[in-house]
Amino acid sequence: MISDTDPRHTSRKLALSSIFSWSFAEPDIERNIEASAEILEEEGVSYDNELTKFIVDGVREHIDEIDRIVEECAPDWPLDKIAKIDLVILRIAIFEVLFGKKTPVKVAIDEAVEIAKEFGNDTSHKFVNGVMGTVVEKYLPSEKEKLPKEIFEKDTETEESKDN
């Protein structure tokens, strides 16, 4: 299990909150990160600012490509029917795995699943895991043998339409 005090895990949660806010308003990325960072600092929680910015900027730069990949890997789920929080988690994980390439595939998927457990609904982690398994199969087949078989157990049917 990933520690809540791990600065890299906290950085992904900080990126999640910033990217999630795009769903509701025109993004002021720097301000979103600063606002969340202030709260973390007040609570004495450390994070990796460089990783946060790398993820946020990377998702923003590649969002069209990432969304196309989500549509391809979860064909029964149009983007507007996927819970916003689950979509943001997928965007981050896909960015890290396919575009960022700083994080090992297993770590990026584990992080996405853990964050989905924390912020999504009861089935979010299964949905995220299933979609990421398909991403690996389609885009990184050489990585498949390095990952636990549970990642490739399809559960993309469990996503429930919700507005969060």
Description:
It is a single chain. This protein is an all-alpha fold and 164 residues long. The chain has one domain (7-158): N-utilizing Substance Protein B Homolog, Chain A. It is 62% helix and 0% strand. The protein has helices at 7-21, 29-42, 49-73, 84-100, 105-119, 124-139.
Backbone structural class: mainly alpha
Strand fraction band?
Answer: under 5%
Q: How many structural domains? A: 1
Q: Gyration radius, to the nearest Å?
A: 15 Å
Overall 3D shape: globular
List low-confidence stretches.
158-164
Instruction: Give the H and E element order.
Output: HHHHHH
Q: What integer is the average pLDDT?
A: 85
| Structure summary, number of beta strands | 0
Layout of secondary structure:
Blueprint (H helix, E strand, L loop, with lengths): L6 H15 L7 H14 L6 H25 L10 H17 L4 H15 L4 H16 L25
List keywords for this structure.
164 residues; disordered C terminus; N-utilizing Substance Protein B Homolog, Chain A; mainly alpha
Summarize it:
With 164 residues, the protein is mainly alpha-helical. The protein is built from six helices and no strands.
